[in-house]
Design goal:
Length: 379
């Protein structure tokens, strides 16, 4: 079987070290290495421009910008191949810093051998390719979220607003950067499971049957499953799964109540309801802000977590939220004035039939059509 040929660029100003590494990799059995070398960070950039390398071996001590400075400068640059840092000093600080700035591995030069270096290169390439595949998976999943949104004509630009509102309330709650990122992803992905719900149900203007409700109730579970390949799925999955739980335990899919509901799912739930109430629908105009506030206040402690709802209401009163006023004046995608004043019960004003914990195994209750439940939507 022929060996894989890998192109390595060694950034090293000492020609003797270049020769040693070249000989080491020449003895490695599992791959054939073509090793080019340059003597500085700047020469490295020139060499990368127009040439394709599988991996960079980067010396720490370089004339001009050192290896760490180069790594820092190149962090996030997609044109840079995976990097393994080499140094003459056994300095832990350099190792930690190198990994922090994106190096795949780190070795003091006096510790490497043909086998160690060859294997390290293989492992770095494996990690790099895996990360690449995961990024591809993420792009597919975010495209699916947009496709799911497109299935429901009542939710024009819902995802854009959701992520914006989610971040605003997250900031008001004093969440850190990572949690804000999770909220933004939750805002984008919470309804991705609608891709598995029939369009006829999502768009049905009349009350849903119990069987149809059961299909709707699957969307958080489907959504969590779709997002399982994401590298942050263990943190975003619970937001997706639990965004229709209610504080009083009457939501779905798991009938969680109170603080059993993951905190970020509680945040998304309030924001989702606000967007539903303050958007035009085919069968009604957006609710006025004072009515939206009244309904959110009324549902705090039953449908939504009281603390999160209070922070959101304070935010609404002090800042308003983005383009809300404009959307209230204009018609929705299918929401021309002629169709907005009807008496048909709107989707999100149907209460999803509640299921008490004791009802889990029993037959479903019929939908309480027409009764405002504080903003539960079909999706
Ligand atoms: Fe939903």
């Amino acid at each position: 079987m022929s060996r894989e040929t890998l192109r390595v660029l060694f950034v090293e100003d000492n020609p003797q070290d270049v020769e040693i590494v070249r000989r080491m990799l020449g003895r490695y059995k599992r791959a054939e290495f073509k090793v080019d070398s340059v003597a500085s960070a700047e020469e490295c950039l020139e060499a990368l421009n127009g040439n394709s390398f599988d991996l960079l071996l980067l010396d720490y001590n370089l004339p001009g910008e050192d290896g760490l400075g180069f790594l820092r400068r190149m962090k996030g640059n997609a044109t840079i191949p995976p990097v393994i840092m080499l140094t003459g000093e056994g300095d832990e600080r350099v190792a930690t810093e190198a990994m922090r700035w994106g190096a795949y591995d780190y070795f003091p030069k006096n510790s490497i051998s043909s086998e160690i270096l060859g294997q390290a290169i293989h492992q770095a390439l494996e990690k790099f390719r895996l990360a690449d595949q995961l990024e591809d998976a993420e792009q597919v999943i975010f495209a699916l979220a947009a496709a799911a949104e497109a299935k429901d004509p009542t939710t024009q630009d819902h995802l854009q607003r959701m992520q914006r509102y989610a971040v605003q309330i997250g900031q008001a709650l004093g969440l850190d950067k990572h949690q804000l990122m999770l909220l933004r992803y939750g805002g984008i992905l919470h309804d991705i499971g609608k891709i598995g719900v029939s369009e006829a149900i999502l768009c049905k203007p009349s009350p849903l049957t119990e069987v149809e409700w059961e299909e709707i109730r699957q969307h958080p579970i489907i959504g969590e499953r779709i997002c399982a390949p994401l590298k942050f799925s263990h943190e975003v999955g619970p937001i997706i799964r639990h965004h229709h739980e209610r504080w009083d335990g009457q939501g779905y899919p798991d009938l969680l109540s109170g603080e059993e509901i993951p905190f970020l799912a509680r945040v998304i739930s309030v924001v989702d309801a606000f967007d539903a109430m303050s958007s035009n629908r085919p069968y009604r105009k957006a609710l006025p802000l004072d009515e939206t506030v009244r309904r959110l206040s009324h549902g705090a402690g039953t449908q939504w977590g009281p603390d999160v709802t209070q922070v959101f209401l304070d935010l609404l009163r002090s800042q308003g939220l983005g383009d809300r006023g404009d959307r209230q004046r204009g018609p929705g995608r299918h929401g021309g004035e002629g169709r907005t004043g009807g008496t048909r019960a709107p989707h999100e004003e149907h209460a999803a039939p509640g299921r008490h914990r004791s009802d889990r195994a029993s037959a479903e209750k019929p939908a309480r059509a027409g009764k405002w439940n504080g903003g539960i939507r079909r999706g």
